[in-house]
Design a protein that fits this description.
The structure is a single chain. The chain is α+β, with helices and mostly antiparallel strands. Helix content is about 15%, strand content about 35%. It has a 7-stranded antiparallel beta sheet with strand order 3-2-6-9-10-5-4, with helices on one face. Strands 1-13-14 form a 3-stranded antiparallel beta sheet, with no helix packed on it. A two-stranded antiparallel sheet has the order 7-8. A hairpin with a 2-residue loop joins strand 4 and strand 5. The longest helix has 11 residues. The protein is globular and about 60 Å long.
């Protein structure tokens, strides 16, 4: 595509929502962090976030970005952020295709006293090391202890250090490797979702020879 065919959008000319739509449709596919936490009063919470990635290998650290509430709770502080800030322990559960509908149900904007595990129809299981619930049905659950919360505009970057990883034996291939094709991760696409299997590699492509783009 030539430069003449590209549209140009400058941040200064756009509203927050307009730029957000461009970003969420461009930075795809995104993995889904299905975050389970517990309030200081013991109320369980479960919610998905797709602004999510590995922040560091050493110390092993994951990052999620949590924005303000929306729909009926527009502009409020999300329960997940409150729980992580107060309890400082939480779990990120990975979402396979088969749990997609359950994950989606847990994204509803409900009152803090509502148990999203029940709403999603999944089972809460105590963490192995930390005081947080895991999704029993999830193939991978990563237990994290809060490292820091960094405000960025109206959002908050949450950095958590990995303390423990729970992996279904059926998807573990040994030597600390996971058979991704066996757990079939679900990805977020600007409000829609996508399957990522089958995968492929570029092992036969030369890393030295230039690519002919003509």
């Amino acid at each position: 595509m030539s430069k003449e065919q590209k549209l140009i959008f400058n941040t200064i000319d756009l509203s927050e929502d307009e730029m957000y739509k461009l970003l969420r449709g461009s930075v795809v596919p995104r993995p889904i962090a299905w975050v389970s936490s517990k309030s200081k009063d013991g109320i369980l919470n479960l919610a998905p976030f797709s602004f999510f990635t590995v922040a560091s290998r050493n110390p092993p650290t994951l990052l999620i970005s949590i924005g303000p509430g929306d729909n009926e709770r527009k502009g409020s502080i999300k329960d997940t952020l409150t729980n992580i800030r107060e309890v400082k322990e939480y779990i990120i559960n990975m979402v396979p295709e088969q749990l997609g509908e359950a994950m989606y149900r847990s994204s509803a904007s409900v009152e803090p006293e509502k148990n999203e595990f029940e709403l999603a129809g999944v089972t809460a299981q105590n963490g192995r090391l930390l005081n947080a619930p895991a999704v029993l049905e999830a193939p991978i659950s990563i237990e994290l202890r809060l490292d820091q919360i960094i405000p960025v505009g109206g959002d908050h970057l949450v950095l958590g250090k990995v303390e423990c990883v729970q992996i279904d034996e059926a998807i573990y291939t040994g030597n600390y490797k996971i058979a991704i094709d066996k757990w079939k991760p679900l990805a977020n696409l600007a409000g829609d979702f996508a399957r990522l299997m089958p995968s492929f590699s570029y092992e036969q492509v030369s890393m030295i020879e230039p690519i002919n783009t003509t």
